[in-house]
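Hey team,

Filing this mostly as a record. A colleague (T.K.) asked me to run one chain through the structure pipeline before their review meeting, and I want the input and output archived in the tracker in case anyone asks later how it was produced. No errors, nothing strange. Just documentation.

Input sequence:
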Amino acid sequence: MSGSYIYASYLLAITFLMRISGRGSFLQKDNELVIPSLFFALAILVILFGDKKLGSYAAMDTNITQLNLFYMGGSVLAYIVGYSLLGLGRFKSLIIVGFILLVINVLVNVDKTTMTLNLKTDIKEKEGIYLMLGDTFGLWALLACVVVTHRLGRATLVVISLICIAFLNSRTSLYAFITAIPFVYRLRFGRTAVVIVIILAGLLSFAPLLETQDGLIGRMFGSVISGEDSSLNSRMIQFDVGITSLADHWFLGDYGGQIRDFGDFGAYLHNILSYWSQFGLIPFLLIISLWVKATLRAKSCIASDEAWADPDQRFFVAALVFFVVEVFASRSYVYFMAWLALGMSAAPIFNKTPQAIPTGYSEHSENNNS
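Output structure:
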């Protein structure tokens, strides 16, 4: 992993904080950057001071300290991008072109036998890239659905996206996208549940055609159809061991404990509890407070007609739902993409009253221009 990337990301973060703090006191009560900054500072200290501890567990081919600093650097960059994201409605054409290119990329790389992404590679470590591909496609698909307001056009995007994400072999990406779809349409809770059930039933209807464990349905719904899911079974074992370790180290956490227990860096808890396990109780409470604040802000966006007319705020809500499913159900502290939504929730536009939202990005204006 390139050390220069790590240094560059932290330098950018410091520059960003200096620029923002120049607008007022960094420690003022309503400053949105205090909590994430404190979290990153504590997490980085844990990583740096935990280097010697990791060395006592086992000899690893990978520099775990540098790897964790890389993930923290990626989280910082994602937060900055989310914080700075504004005016998505102006880039509607580019977003649609990007979506088309992503669809083409998926279709040309699908294995026609298993109907999933072709993961054949001589470098085994690269096989895991499908997780990032699935999440990237799901997030971009939500972005496209947000900027396209025509009902038929949006419905077409949803159907195409469901098929492509299923091909990409990432279950969590598929489930997260399905959960976010009703929020794109601003449906109420009851209708949201109905839509999710209909979509899942539609996908499962293909089960008789693709029943093998190596095939599409076997990978996505193996635990439902056959009760066999090797990936889920191994994660449950990691969860049991991780929770036991967390009970013994509930305050300071057990940084890198998965290496001691399994001899594998990737055997950490695959959910939000990984933050607690790796960095301790205080950083965990800090990041939980960020998710709670973002959720309350998203709720306000949904409740306001004027706020919902803004593509930026619609995308924030959809992305937040997508990442909540990912982080709380399957992803760990190394998953830096989720910080994009947390950064968006802290952006100045979300601190404004609905009357102050730029009218140039309204859904009404988009309909007139389409």
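Quick notes for T.K.: The longest strand covers residues 110-111. Residues 281-303 form the longest helix (23 residues).
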